[in-house]
Structures are given as structure tokens and as C-alpha cells.
Amino acid sequence: MNRPLQVTVLGATGSIGLSTLDVISRHPDRYAVFALTGFTRLTELRALCAAHRPRFAVVGDEAQALVLQQQLHSDGITTRVMSGEGGLDEVAGHPEVDVVMAAIVGAAGLRPTLAAVQAGKRVLLANKEALVMSGALFMQALRDSSAVLLPIDSEHNAIFQCLPSSYSQGLGAVGVRRILLTASGGPFREFAPQHLADVTPEQACAHPNWSMGRKISVDSASMMNKGLELIEACWLFDARPDQVEVVIHPQSVIHSMVDYVDGSVLAQLGNPDMRTPIAHALAWPERIDSGVSALDLLQIGRLDFQKPDDMRFPCLRLARLAAESGGTAPAMLNAANEVAVDAFLSRRIRFTEIASIIDDVLNREAPVATGCLDDVLAADRRARQLAGAWLGCNGR
To answer: Which ranges of the chain does DSSP label H, i.e. alpha helix?
Structure first.
């Protein structure tokens, strides 16, 4: 390696972004931070710019950019601050960038992730919504470019590690029978369904194994996160929804498995720490130190597995239906979920009403095929309108 690889971190102030920067800082000879983005967390982004000295930083709007630029100037930091979607696209597709960590949560991450793919970067995909919303378009853009796509979700990274390099020929061609997508079950794995209506945002965000942001923590509690991962797995590994089985594994040690037709089941194990898949994708096909401690199976002692309960986790069922329907259904599912989770976190709805909103939105309009990104974004907007109408009709 003649020079350190230049890395843009989209969503630098979130948990994935911070873990990425931790791994990068352990290997200054291999990686350098080119750009950091953090749309609203200016204080955190200022500190990260001081620590990593990127060439660029991107925030939400021009007013925020001016504030941060002045702060960095007073700190003696020469980072140039940009704003908005244009700034995101520029740092994702910049000619000098080698690697893009796509870790912006939700639909907002779609455009810059696509920009990185179209620019031929090594894209580390932590933004599952990009594939959920626009799977066919996204994968076609990948085929039309020289980009390399590596999954960061611990489950998809595990599947990637357990599949042969020729998996792109089709799962049947490489003898795969099933993908077993593991799930922790979140904080409500043992809750009686009738008690879920009264849980609080604090309870939903108290994940037993992982440290994550509030939105993804709620998705984990509802198992919508696993539903989105099911859709993502179908696109990443060219699988049918019926080839992907969700298995609750409370210890979060086995991150996913691949079941082969000869009876072999390959699993990837590790401590629940996102630095492992991040380090794997940064260095692939090599291996580097991630800072994660070695797995102690003797201390863990046991590995348990359960079937998800549809009564407790209706969001998982809705996501599978959207995967089977295809077209605009996954984009509408994702948008309705984002609106519903935001309403739950702001205490406007009960936890159980997250699924009610999504179900209502999906039943109001039949999915249609998507021919371009505008079709996807139109479905996203329509679903948000319908979800907002549900909130309005129900006094929220």
C-alpha cells in the first residue's frame, strides 16, 4: 500500500460512524479520514474534526455550515464545511475517496450511498434502507459500476463470510438451501404481547446486547430491524424471501448462518461489537485488528434459539409480506416505519401502534413497479403522507 486509503464516513456521529473511526485510528498507516458527515450534531462533529482532521465535513444546511466553519477556524482546523445533499454527494463520490462508510440512518442515506456506488467506491453498507427502498435500482447501479459493496450489518457480514466467493452465481448454484438470519429478540423477547402497549421509549431503547442509536433500537425491539434485514439479504445475496429464515438467538454470538444442501451449516461467531464487521469490510480480503476482545465460549456456556412470535412481533410479518410483494412495498414499509418510530419516540403513539400504522399504509395502496429513483422517492413521500394522516385521524 503506497498511501493510506482515504475514507469518507457518512453518519460519523452515530454509533457505526464512531466505531468506524475507532478502527481507523488503530491503523493510521492503512487509513485516513477524508470526510465526516453529521447533519445536526455539530458539537460532536466539531470534536471529531479536531481528532481526525478530515479535509471535508458536511452538515444539514448552510447556516449550520457557517457556524461549524467558524468554530473550526477558531480551533485552527482547516477542514472545509459543506451542507445538504450536494455536500453529501460530493464527499461520497469525490475522486480521491477510496472507501465510503454508508451509515446515515434511514431514507436520507439513499442518495449519497448511490453516489458512492456510481463513483465506483468500496462501499461499506450500514444503511440498510438504501437496499430496502430501491433494491433493484441499487443492484443495477452496482452492476453498472466498478464499485465493491460489502455489508456492515453484523448479520449480512456474517452471511457474506459464510458464503463462497461464487455466491453471485445464485444460491442454488453454490448449494445453499437457506440463509438463517439471527436476531437477539431485543428487550421484549419475553414480554407477553398484551403488555407491549404500555412499554416506554426508554424500555424499547434498552437493548440487552448492542449499543445502538434510538431509531434502530426501537426497530430491534419491534423486530422491524430484522424485517428490513430480511429484505436487504434478498437483494445482497439474490435470495427469495422464503429462502431467508429468522431465528431468535438471545446471546447474539452467532451473527448468522448459511445452510447448505449437504447438511453443513456454516456460522460466523463473535462478540456483539460492530467493530468486527467494520474491520472485516475495511480490510477485506485481509484481516486487521478491530480492538474487539476474543470470544470466550466457555464463559458464554450455552447458545439458545427460538422461533419469532408473530403476535409479539407483527412488524416482522409485515416486512416479509412487503418483501414478497416487491415493487414500491418495501419503500412504503420503510417510510411508514420511520414516521411511526418517530411518533413513538416522541410519545405520540403506543409501541403497538407502530405496526398498526405500517399495516394501514401498506393496505391503502397496492405496490407498483419502480423504474427509476423518482418512483422510489414518490412512494416514500406517499407513505409518509398516509402515515401522517393516520396520526392526524387518531388525534396525534
So the answer is: 15-25, 42-52, 62-74, 84-93, 110-118, 129-143, 154-162, 201-204, 214-222, 224-236, 275-283, 297-300, 314-325, 329-345, 353-364, 373-393
